[in-house]
Amino acid sequence: DVIAGFLYAILILVVFHPVVDLIDNFNLTYKYAPLIIVILEMTTVEKIEEQLAGLHIAKRSMLSEEPAYLLDIDVSKPAQCESGRFVAVSCSNKSIRIYNRETLSFLREYSSRPGVLNGVRFAHACDSVVFSACSDGTVKCWDTRLAAEEPVQVFRGYPSNVFISFDVNHSDIIVCAGTEKVDKDTFLVFWDARGVTDCASVAKEPLGVYSESHNDDITKICFHPVEPNLLVSGSTDGLVNVFDINKDNEDDALISTCNSDSSVSFVGWSGKGYKQVYCMTHDEGFCWWDIAQLDTEEPITLLHVLDVRDSVCGGNNSLHYLVGGLYHEKAEKLFLIGGTSRGNIHLMGCSTDGLSLVGTLCGGHSATVRSSCWNLKDESLLTGGEDAQLLLWKPGAVERSLAKKASMKLASSVQKRVRVHNSSLKSRKK
């Protein structure tokens, strides 16, 4: 009966359209509707995985007069039916470079000297506004329409603050930055980001801080893609914390603490409705949790891989490091990106059964890839690396630009990775 239903479902999908009408009109189709839906979902996931595996280089940026490692990438948020127009890149030479997204042509550059840059983010509602965090204890706001070398707004922290992570929430109202540990203090610092272009001469002071939830460097911050009040943070103390910043105090704001058992290098949101969080660690581990299960008896851990290098891509093309992740809403699936020291990029799919290789992108970078940014509007991927190259990958693209560059040897200009501490980890329920 199951085999007959499976064959019938395939016949329905091949011969008839649309499926919804058939479910309404045929009892037999209704009987096997769940099976048809599963097949449709499988087809969608397989199609998207094929697109990801079929990414090719569409554009390659010109090599700058002052080559530098490309450490972080963000794309301006698209209007309703458009793709983002600009790309912002933070570089190891303490500069922010702005590029045209479609052509990768260089537009302008801003300097953060003497501080070291730790991330770039575009505002969600205005594609000309870009933020950057700096080790000098500031978050700066730049207007890409202006040729001025000065920021239009500066968010200043407290005197001892060294910011190594930050993000802007979905409504562009709150900026949050995470600090290195100084003495015994580690902070999440918050500012009101409204009216950033109206009072450039006045440095904005913090709204307040969270100081009790982490006990070591806060390496990554990520606001929820939809809910502006939800925030996840990761630290070298091994903890991944989820906050609701609408609450009156830090204790009430802390919704969940998940322990990765290692120093956290990356955090993100995933799952339908983005009710899951995941992290990567400095020793290439991966953890994935379902926050929706907090108030149930079900375990919240979906997957914990101690070392991804041991579970994916063996042989000569093995995985050396992790870069970032993407939750694909159409496929309803989480994907990870990693790579090799020679610049090959591995795309991996996540399930509760483990990680699986989706595809490998070759022929682009000649050295370690340090940053990536996905654009789901056109299924494209931007990557930046230690070869000073910014690459745009698209499904089925044919490169008509510059040849591959040789690997750079700029050890003195490399921004150091956040150190991995061996300090004891906090423990909390769930």
Automatic annotation (TrEMBL):
Pfam families: WD40 (PF00400). Keywords: Membrane, Repeat, Transmembrane, Transmembrane helix, WD repeat. InterPro entries: WD40/YVTN_repeat-like_dom_sf, WD40_repeat_dom_sf, WD40_rpt, WDR89. WD repeats lie at residues 211-253, 362-394. Coiled coil: none annotated. It comes from the Eukaryota. PANTHER family: WD REPEAT-CONTAINING PROTEIN 89 (PTHR22889). This is WD repeat-containing protein 89. It comes from Rhinopomastus cyanomelas.
